[in-house]
Amino acid sequence: MKKAILYSIMLFSGFLSYGQGGIDKADSLVQQARYLNQDRKFKQALEKMALAEPLTLSTFGHESIRYADLCYVYGLIQLSYSNYKEAEKWLDKCSAIRLKLLGKEHLDYLRSLYFLGNVYYHMGDNYERAEQCYLEVKAIEEYTVGVNSLEYAGILSALGVLYLRMGNYDISEKLFLEALHIKEQKLGKEHQSYGGTLNNLAIVYSARKNYEEAEKFYKANIEIIAKEFGKSSIGYAGGIMNLASIYIKTGHYVDAELLFLESKRIFELVPDFSKIPSYMSCMEFLGELYYAMGKFDLSEHYHLIAKELREKELGKEHLSFQMSLANLSLTYWAKRDYVKAASYLTDAADMRRRLLFNASRHLSEKEVFSYTQLFEQELDQHYSFANDHFAVLPHFTTSCYNNTLFHKGFLLNISQRFRSQNITNTQLPDKLQQIQNHRNQFVC
Q1: How far is residue 257's CA from residue 61's CA, in Å, rounded to a whole number?
Q2: DSSP-assigned letter for residue 18
Q3: Which of 230, 363, 370, 389 is least enclosed, having the fewest CB within 10 Å?
Q4: What pLDDT does residue 430 have?
Q5: Residues in contact with 73: Cβ distance below 8 Å, sequence separation at least 6, in sequence order
Q6: Cα–Cα distance for residue pair 116/231, rounded to 1 Å
Q7: How far is the CA of 9 from the CAs of 38, 86, 198, in angstroms?
Q8: Inter-axis angle of helices 234-249 and 192-207, to 10 degrees?
């Protein structure tokens, strides 16, 4: 059986030494880049890779396994650095070379395809491509490494995270539970990878408002992290941050604040901490906490930090940036700064429409209904704001009108797509009627 390889953000591919001066130097540079990447010294790592690339090309050329390996390392460093466009470029190049020279069943090709899927996931606006990459890896691994392998558990977890983000909680839970069973058999219940799957399941249960179950799973993961990495690790910071998010929802604000501030302190010990997506989430959670506590100045402060970091590091088309805009709109509304609130409400709605338009080609029926719930919440906020402050901001009604037209058109297109599908589904008429009911609400 082929050697099992765990999927995690590590630089697996090594470079063999051929005894030639230039190749030895390239090997050394890539090895240095790998260590620098592990220490989160991304700029220095990329500088080493820039020196290694021409040495590799001069000896092996573009259509070589050695160059593909270099592209792979380059791509993973850029992924770690959150430079997703650059990561896409290098990993796409690596995948193409490996597919041509090694074939689609080779583990090196599957690794590069897996991480390419990670890139599309983190971009936040191309889940279709992420799903395509993950499903291809899953299909090949079923008959190469087998459905009881750690590789297979890794791709199940990746798909689970993707579907979780897309709102398909039933499929997500099923995938996580299957991955958890494999990891328990292969690694035991105290391994960090097992704990990571517990954490993912906790997120599912939190999304379903099963907070007691979510708290239990979060705590189990935190215990594993503390034993293996200590209470000063990034993993521990992320774990207690997730637990604190439950305490916001259950109204335990003092407990939540203590955990969030401890998480923030740990993150800020890390070089380039502001580039860590979990740190951005910590800022957003603090903003949500202080909003719930009625401390709106502090809420504004942390939401602005989250927004600025996401805009800088992830870009304005990322889903989390839209979330920051929406949170700021509510904060300014509470502070009675209605001009800023209206501006952020409008920007958040515009961006959500763009994201939804990009995603609409591959939404399942269940995901459509999850989105319609978001529509209703967004429209309710717009209508409430417009009604409350029409005298001050009469032009805001235009934003409400545009919002309604888009959502009505979206649901019309989706219902037509479902009707055109030649599938045997006894529940489809009821689902189409539900869509029609949502459309009728927009008429009002």
Answers
A1: 55
A2: -
A3: 230
A4: 58
A5: 11, 13, 30, 33, 34, 49
A6: 31
A7: 9, 16, 19
A8: 20
How many Å apart are CA 192 and CA 11, to the nearest integer? 18
Long-range contacts of 6-12 (CB under 8 A, 24+ apart): 6/150, 6/151, 6/154, 6/193, 7/111, 7/114, 7/151, 7/154, 7/155, 7/157, 7/158, 8/154, 8/193, 9/76, 9/79, 9/80, 10/76, 11/37, 11/38, 11/72, 11/73, 11/76, 11/77, 12/111
Tokens representing 437 are 């009911």
Structure tokens at 76: 């993973």
Instruction: Name the residue among 113, 101, 91 with its Cα closest to residue 60.
Output: 101
pLDDT per 10-residue tile (average), the chain, 444 residues: 41 44 81 89 92 92 94 94 92 97 96 96 82 94 95 96 88 97 97 96 95 97 96 96 97 98 97 90 98 97 96 82 88 90 79 64 56 61 63 62 65 63 52 47 40
Give the contacts of 112 (CB within 8 A, at least 6 positions apart): 68, 72, 75, 91, 94, 95, 98
Residue bearing tokens 């392998």? 149
State residue 435's pLDDT score: 42
pLDDT computed for residue 343 by the predictor: 84
418, two tokens: 């479902």
Q: What is the pLDDT of residue 317?
A: 74
pLDDT of residue 323: 85
In contact, 272 and 235? CB cutoff 8 Å: no
Residue 395 CB partners (closer than 8 Å, separation 6+)? none
The SS3 of residue 436 is helix
Cα 122 from Cα 82, distance rounded (Å): 8
Q: Among residues of the chain, what percentage have pLDDT more than 70?
A: 74
Residue-range domain boundaries for the chain: 230-314, 349-444
Q: Which two tokens stand for residue 387?
A: 């009604």
Report the number of secondary-structure helices (H) and strands (E) in the chain.
Answer: 19, 0
- List Cβ neighbours of 344 (8 Å cut-off, separation of 6 or more): 325, 326, 328, 329, 332
Q: Specify the residue for token string 């991955």.
A: 179
Q: Kindly report the number of other CB atoms within 10 A of residue 302's CB atom.
A: 23
Q: Which of 1.25.40, 3.40.50, 1.10.3210, 1.10.12 would CATH assign to domain 230-314?
A: 1.25.40
Long-range contacts from 182-191, C-beta under 8 angstroms, 24+ separation: 182/148, 182/149, 182/150, 182/152, 182/153, 182/156, 183/150, 183/153, 185/148, 186/148, 186/149, 186/150, 186/153, 187/150, 190/224, 190/227, 190/228, 191/224, 191/228
The CA distance from 157 to 154, in Å, is 5
Sign of CA dihedral 326, 404, 319, 248: positive
